[in-house]
Amino acid sequence: MIAFRKMNGLGNDFAVVDGRKAAVDLSSERIAALGNRQTGIGFDQFITLAPARGGEDALMVIHNSDGGEVESCGNAARCVAALLLEETGREEVHIGSAGGAMRAWRNGHGISVDMGVPRFDAASIPLADPAADAQALLLTDPVLRAFGPAACANVGNPHAVFWVDDVEAVDLLRVGPLAEVDPVFPEKANISFVEIADPARVRARVWERGAGATRACGTAACAIGAVGHFTGRLAATVEVTLPGGPLSIDVSSGRIVMTGDYALDWTGTITADGYSRDA
After folding, report:
1. pLDDT the model gives residue 233
2. Which pLDDT score is estimated for 275?
């Protein structure tokens, strides 16, 4: 019997469990079953709070809906930050993750998270060819090459950004899965297609590694803001509008600060043979 909170950041949704006092040990197969939107809870990511290892308030362990563990999730970080800020009563909290430590604080009605320093070199992303130009990367598949070169970054996890004239014209369900597993990405990648309205405003659609097409992806918005500014396309502060809504990304300090909303949807309990929803 494991209590969970169903939460979301701009529609990117999570089941969040607290394993700080009693360890949560679910197999990847069980997490995938719980993530199924027809027969399970239904979520993009399964988030476990674990005891901190390096002085943070908690460690955030992230599994995608396919059961695979990943390094970072920006929208989940805002949800976890909201829980920790309420729990501690402090003005800011620190969250550990496999992708690095994050500092978070309230900003109006939303949450701001310092997501760290982006990395733009091929080895850090990583790319299969450590000598590749990570800001002008041509993928292997001919279908993907039609979109031109991608700009890549690691913002706690690997991302590739394609600049397009019209994001709605992209057949995301077709090209997203192809790009995620292209051989140039040895650890796969999150894939974004971005339409620039002006240097401070963009629209984006994202295929998330291990989760598919999502309403929003916080780390994708971070990557878009980071590589957009790094390559001279975007201002240091940019509003990234995803299908689920807008995120503000500020890279003016050299670090990525992401600001956006979060929500608690409902609560429930994971049981031996499924889950139950609280009344």
Report:
1. 97
2. 96
DSSP 3-state of 269:
strand
The pTM assigned to this predicted structure is 0.92
CATH superfamily of 2-113+261-277: Diaminopimelate Epimerase; Chain A, domain 1 (3.10.310.10)
Token pair for 87: 């729990």
- For 206-240, b/e burial (b = at least 16 CB within 10 A) is bbbbbbbbbbbbbbbbbbbbbbbbbeebbbebbbb
pLDDT digits (tens, 9 = 90+) for 73-106: 999 999 999 999 999 999 999 999 998 899 999 9
| 3-class secondary structure, 172 | helix
The count of other CB atoms within 10 Å of the CB of residue 273 is 5
And the tokens for 54? 């390096």
Q: For this structure, is 79 an active site residue?
A: no
> Per CATH, which fold does 142-254 belong to?
Diaminopimelate Epimerase; Chain A, domain 1 (3.10.310)
Say what the pLDDT of residue 168 is.
Answer: 96
Question: Which of 79, 152, 217, 222 is labelled catalytic?
Answer: 217
Q: Where are the domains positioned within the chain?
A: 2-113+261-277, 142-254
Q: Strand, helix or coil at 153?
A: strand
Same fold, 2-113+261-277 and 142-254: yes
Residue 55's pLDDT is 87
Predicted pLDDT at 54:
83
Catalytic site residue from 73, 79, 152, 222: 73
- The pLDDT confidence band at residue 279, using thresholds 50, 70 and 90, is confident
